[in-house]
Design brief:
476 residues, alpha+beta, FAD/NAD(P)-binding domain, Flavocytochrome C3, Chain A, domain 1, eight-stranded mixed sheet, 13 helices, 21 strands
Amino acid sequence: MIDVLVIGGGNAALCAALMAREAGASVLLLESAPREWRGGNSQHTRNLRCMHDAPQDVLSEAYPEEEFWQDLLKVTGGATDEKLARLTIRASASCRSWMRKHGVHFQPSLKGTLHLSRTNAFFMGGGKALVNAYYRSAEALGVQIRYDTPVTALEIEDGRFIAAQAGSQRIQAKTCVLACGGFESNRDWLREAWGQNERGEWPSDNFLIRGTRFNQGVLLKHMMEQRADIIGDPTQAHCVAIDARAPLYDGGIVTRVDAVSLGLMLNREAKRFYDEGEDFWPKRYAIWGRLVAMQPGQIGYCIIDSKAIGRFMPPVFPGVKADSLSELARKLKLDEATLVETLGSYNAACRVGNFDHTVLDDCHTEGLTPPKTHWARPIDTAPFYGYALKPGITFTYLGLKTNDKAQVHFGGAPSDNLFVAGEMMAGNVLGRGYTAGVGMSIGTAFGRIAGTQAALAAQSAPSARPAMKDKVHAAA
């Protein structure tokens, strides 16, 4: 019988598999996707938010625990478990040497991401390179890997894992780690969660999925039916405003439009609806998908002028370009008079000081609702650009309640051989909101914890191999 069964194929699952294998456990990893699509949403990532008390290779200055915690507290509005959040933060300080050992390389921040050089370590080659490195290491260590193997159900007795059902296969193991993502690709479940709004619209019908099409939430739903303890709001998610021309699935990072804080956001009525300059883009970009989701037709329009060009990471699709605001309105199919009036009111309200997009500068509006509190400059220099944006769901926050040992809970009691990591438990730390790179911090921290704890639990199982004990304690 296998010691540790890992269900999932992204960062958290791979971290769990590697840690369990290093601890001496036999490990089988089941990935629902085919090999060419392996890695879940992790293949679309690019960095990890890291605590550090002094400059470290690709990380500048310092990013201490308390600042990281305050950043997380702010974006979640307090909807976070402080104990698990601080566990994640502290783990982020010590994981990179382990990651390097498994073939992950880091690089300095690139142009357009320099404001993250203090807080985030970027993967050389992005998330795809990270995933490939982990798979190579797992294979070299003897982790068994099966692709195209979706698991549909688990046998659980009194909170203990017995076996997994994958098609016609019944797979037994001493312990199990669930790391198979949220339900963001399940269109029916999204519709059920978001419901119908007061305008008679079904908002989720207009959502795009930034990540993998394979995160259908099958095992999450199954665990709910098994009466596992659940945490989170099904409408809360990592939800970004992305280019409306993006594909339905797997658009990834390149579909994001990072110009919002440099310009204005309008709805289809050509009116503003939120403060574009509230805070730095890495802390606020993940609120804009939800804000756009609340607008008519679930669409927004980012408007900038030529002064903004070169100051943000260029998206994959060029913006709609025009020599006048009236022409831009016509091209975007927005009411011309309203757009011109909205921009005129904004321009008149701007109080320009020392513009600096790398700090919370003193450029703001006065007498305007909603205000723009930073980086407010008149949009008056042709050519003008517009981007139509839709909500892009990366991952959902509804998940399994857990503890500092990554155990799944039933009726408040932790399971002694069923563990969870990654998006399936991220809602413990992220009740709402997001800050750049923290998803990978959570997945890495809890993947490593889950793998270690699963190996320990397997060692204590009745038929465990005696020789495994010392290896497990060394890895833990």
